[in-house]
């Protein structure tokens, strides 16, 4: 279920304006602070480290990569991935390559790419499904399925928690119930872990494939 042209242009325009307003800061990616952005990164990194040897050069795909800050955070924590980032915003991709020269990033959503199955050890996503695309959540479900197809070992992504009152009151934000998302992911993956203990308005899903 790919984005329509109208949806794609709306997201691109929103991110272009955000970069023009905030520059290359986490606020341009709609994070409330760098600390909150990096807390989510740490949860993702911890999940990968629990099931893989992060001292090895694992291939990692970052969906909705923004500026590619996850890779910089991983390097700061002694984890060097064979990193590839994708983002539907051409301005984000251009900014990522200016901010981190040599970083491998491509413009497009996940359905624009035809990598073979299991092309990456891990596929991650942080914050990129917080934008409302459809009320049903079907777009998010289709993205998760595609992420899992490209992953050899597993997928890690975070979502906004609809159980939190402020999040539930925001129709402009895409949010999910952790229980419902766990049930959905259980239908896809060999093992599913839901992590909820780091922020009241956020949760992280870890989907593991048969190794």
Automatic annotation (TrEMBL):
CDD domains: AdoMet_MTases
Top-level taxon in the UniProt lineage: Bacteria
GO aspect biological process, one term: methylation
Methyltransferase type domain residues: 61-155
Signal found in the keyword field: no
Annotated Pfam families: Methyltransf_11 (PF08241)
InterPro entries reported in the protein's UniProt record: Methyltransf_11, SAM-dependent_MTases_sf
GO molecular function term, any single one: S-adenosylmethionine-dependent methyltransferase activity
Alphabetically ordered keywords of this record: Methyltransferase, Transferase
Protein name: Methyltransferase
């Amino acid at each position: 279920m790919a984005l329509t042209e109208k949806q794609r242009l709306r997201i691109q325009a929103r991110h272009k304006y955000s970069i023009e307003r905030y520059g290359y800061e986490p606020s341009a990616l709609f994070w409330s602070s760098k600390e909150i952005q990096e807390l989510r990164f740490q949860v993702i990194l911890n999940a990968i480290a629990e099931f893989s040897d992060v001292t090895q050069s694992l291939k990692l795909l970052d969906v909705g990569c923004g500026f590619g800050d996850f890779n910089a955070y991983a390097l700061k924590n002694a984890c060097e991935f064979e990193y590839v980032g994708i983002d539907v915003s051409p301005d984000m991709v251009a900014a990522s390559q200016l901010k981190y020269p040599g970083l491998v990033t491509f413009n497009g959503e996940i359905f624009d790419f035809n990598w073979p199955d299991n092309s990456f050890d891990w596929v991650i996503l942080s914050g990129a499904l917080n934008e409302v695309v459809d009320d049903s959540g079907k777009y998010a479900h289709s993205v998760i399925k595609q992420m899992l197809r490209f992953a050899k070992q597993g997928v890690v992504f975070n979502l906004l928690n609809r159980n939190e009152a402020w999040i539930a009151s925001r129709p402009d934000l895409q949010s999910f119930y952790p229980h419902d998302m766990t049930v959905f992911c259980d239908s896809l993956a060999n093992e599913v872990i839901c992590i909820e203990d780091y922020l009241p308005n956020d949760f992280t899903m870890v989907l593991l494939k048969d190794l």
